[in-house]
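queue> pop job 88
queue> type: inverse folding (structure -> sequence)
queue> payload:
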């Protein structure tokens, strides 16, 4: 049998072909037993569940059996039999065992169960082998697949936007520089400034904070596109919801206005939650049992409720009258903090909330300006426990208005001439948003720190793996 055709543990656990032989390969989770019989819980990552392998110890080489310890990688061929034990319906009676790689119990860090999340972050190279990270990684995979499926089924095209850019999409200046210049002794201009014309691209370049601006160019040709790629922010936010490198999903749609944008965001999020509940049921139940007894209830709560849609001014009024002491005081014009967002979602409305029409001074230059001269058609989708999960807007499609906003905000126009040109040639009303992929994984898994839903988190002072 070809390796690719070999049934994985997930499949074998569902079979009733008793008496048939199978070849299993995987990592030992536990071994118990005695001189005569050993029970090995084997896992190959295809499912949260282990298969029990029964070894008739005297029939095997004793030294080899000794090497079968937690963490070891083994290949077992054996017969599928009905299990007498509790907790499983089938097991494998081993006929032949090969140890691919032992894991010395004296030093293997995942010897016992129940390690703290903090400790597991220090062994990010091994934590995929825990039940928790196996579940998180499978959910991440299915969520990513569901995202592509949703867009493909709804007429969107996947567009690959650049990682290295010469512009600052969000205008927030929180970017990682990309440069090959000698950091100690860079070439300098006559004014003593670093001379980026001598750099690799002949100009200053950075890692992208968002694929939106390039995504808009695609929407002005294909009508509906989405990007799904890594984005980078050099903001010094050491919180359980911020990463310096995270994945963002950004649909961009010609002819959609702010209400269409909200409709899409709500439908998209509900679809994805339903999709993961259907494809990852066992993993979700495991996470619910281990970490968060309200997990599935919270997911259903999103599916069962229409998202509340309010304008920023209304949100501020609610917060001002909440009778709460805020760490960050609220008044019209301030940016809402996580404590405010969560109050609106968890206490006031008790459902997901979409806030629109923010003060223009706290939002990016590209958002469509309202006629009141004070607000823009931005939108944030707020979730329980997470706060902002989506940020988006209708875009300013009017050339003059966009240009004057860029000037007002002191953004260098020479970096954005191509973006402005779309408003000169066949401009159209359009809108889009960005979903923080890890924030949705955080919500779906019930984990409490975003560092635990990405294989190798990048945060301030941490890029070890
Ligand atoms: O609200 P943001 O900054 O919006 C944009 O970047 C727009 N260009 C999107 C668009 O309209 N196409 O980011 C979008 C989302 C946030 O709502 C949040 O979920 C996530 O990205 N996000 C982060 N996730 C993890 N770590 C960070 N540091 C994040 N910053 C934003
Ligand atoms: Mg935002």
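queue> result:
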């Amino acid at each position: 049998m070809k390796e690719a055709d070999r049934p994985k543990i997930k499949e074998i656990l569902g079979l009733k072909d008793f008496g048939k032989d199978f070849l299993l390969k995987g990592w030992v989770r536990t071994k118990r037993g005695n001189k005569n019989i050993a029970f090995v819980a084997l896992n190959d990552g295809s499912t949260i569940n282990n298969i029990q392998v029964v070894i008739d110890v005297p029939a095997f080489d004793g030294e080899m059996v000794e090497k079968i310890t937690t963490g070891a990688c083994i290949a077992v061929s054996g017969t599928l039999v009905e299990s007498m034990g509790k907790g499983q319906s089938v097991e494998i009676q081993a006929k032949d065992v090969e140890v691919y790689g032992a894991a010395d119990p004296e030093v293997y860090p995942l010897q016992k169960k129940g390690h703290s999340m903090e400790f597991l972050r220090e062994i990010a190279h091994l934590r995929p082998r825990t039940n928790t990270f196996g579940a998180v990684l499978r959910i991440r995979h299915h969520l990513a697949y569901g995202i592509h499926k949703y867009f493909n089924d709804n007429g969107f095209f996947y567009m690959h936007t650049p990682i290295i850019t010469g512009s600052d999409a969000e205008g927030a200046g929180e970017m990682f520089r990309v440069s090959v210049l000698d950091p100690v002794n860079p070439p300098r201009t006559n004014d003593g400034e670093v001379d980026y014309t001598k750099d690799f691209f002949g100009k200053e370049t950075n890692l992208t904070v968002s694929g939106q601006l390039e995504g808009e160019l695609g929407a002005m040709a294909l009508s509906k596109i989405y990007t799904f790629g890594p984005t980078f922010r050099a903001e010094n936010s050491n919180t359980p919801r911020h990463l310096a490198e995270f994945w963002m999903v950004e649909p961009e749609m010609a002819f959609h206005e702010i209400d269409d944008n909200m409709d899409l965001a709500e439908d998209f999020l509900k679809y994805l939650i339903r999709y993961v509940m259907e494809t990852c049921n066992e993993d979700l139940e495991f996470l619910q049992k281990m970490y968060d007894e309200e997990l599935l209830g919270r997911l259903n709560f999103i599916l069962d409720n229409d998202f509340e849609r309010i304008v920023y001014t209304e949100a501020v009024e609610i917060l001002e009258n909440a009778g709460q002491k805020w760490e960050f005081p609220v008044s019209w014009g301030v940016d809402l903090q996580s404590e405010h967002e969560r109050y609106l979602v968890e206490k006031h409305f008790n459902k997901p909330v979409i806030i629109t029409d923010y003060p223009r001074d706290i939002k990016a230059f590209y958002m469509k300006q309202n006629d009141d001269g004070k607000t823009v058609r931005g939108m944030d989708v707020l979730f329980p426990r997470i706060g902002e999960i989506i940020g988006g807007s209708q875009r300013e499609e009017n050339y003059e208005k966009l240009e004057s906003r860029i000037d007002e905000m002191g953004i260098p126009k020479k970096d954005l001439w191509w973006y402005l040109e779309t408003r000169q040639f066949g401009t159209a009303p359009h809108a889009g948003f960005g979903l923080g992929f890890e924030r949705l994984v955080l919500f779906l898994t019930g984990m409490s720190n975003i560092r635990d839903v990405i294989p190798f988190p990048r945060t301030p002072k941490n890029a070890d793996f």
